[in-house]
Amino acid sequence: MTSQQWKWAKASSLTLAIATLTACGGGDNKTNDNTGGNVGGDTGGTKVSLEQFNFLKQTGTWRSKMDIDATIENDVEFGGQTAHYLTDLVIAGNSVTSVRYVNDSEVVIANCDGFPEETLTTSDFSDNFAFEDSDEEGNALFCPSGMEVNYYIVSDDHYRIELICEDATLGNFNMYKLSDSAAFDFGSFSFNSEDHSDLNATGGVCGSHIFSDANITVTTNGQEEERSNSATSITVEAPYGDTKVSLMLEFPSSITTGTYDVIDFFDDADSDDVVSVMLMSSVFGGTPSDPASLSATMGSVTISAISDTAVSGTFDIATYTGDNIDGSFSFDISQ
Questions:
Q1: Mean pLDDT on 36-61
Q2: pTM assigned to the model
Q3: Which of 8, 97, 101, 305 is the most buried (most CB within 10 A)?
């Protein structure tokens, strides 16, 4: 797991919390308690210090498997009343990271997220993985009393991070080495566009598949109301001209094989069989660090096969700019 993926995990939780608050008009959020749930993922390994947790010193590609299961309690004040929120949160997903180790002062990291690679030092890595700052917004949401982080080496090709809050396990992050090469080579991605260059990539392709779910019980003046909020995120990335392009699919629930209609806003959907689609690349405008995106306004996405680590499908969309784009994608990041 990289710092980007930890930030994603915290952002997912914050997004679910914000969505919940928005549904009842907002308020002042006071985090009171947090306990662990039935966290999945591999366990075991030899416990080491953060300084010994040196998987970034190995050039290669790594699959990151994220498993978070936590119960978060919040008191929210609004309109002179206090509402108590009990949120059972689950985040599970797989993504890949490319690591090119030059020396301790130059470690080049590429994530499958649509943004350029970044260069870190090994000390940057230690700072990014410390996690214990309970004043930082995301960490406070997960564990207001302060996160305990344990680091394990399971084998030369398997590293693990464990998150503990008040003796309860909140999360496991397992990193599995897939290759000694820093190049992504996990599938194919192609499309035809009326307004931009076509794509036919069979190398440099990566993907991710992440699911989050929150079951929320709100208690106000002794009255309980139950809500739920789920999301599935699938990203496919490939080289595109001198930069890269990412296809980002967002679903308002867990998904299976089938066809999903493109929609702008999930609030307008009559069913869960819908998807939000975005293509992102600096070819469309912007810069590599701040690429422009093309959002789909209509069309469909068909998922032909799906597992935790592999997804394939096709898409046929119209964008808000008037472009018509159809294509296919497939990736497999299993070990």
A1: 78
A2: 0.82
A3: 97
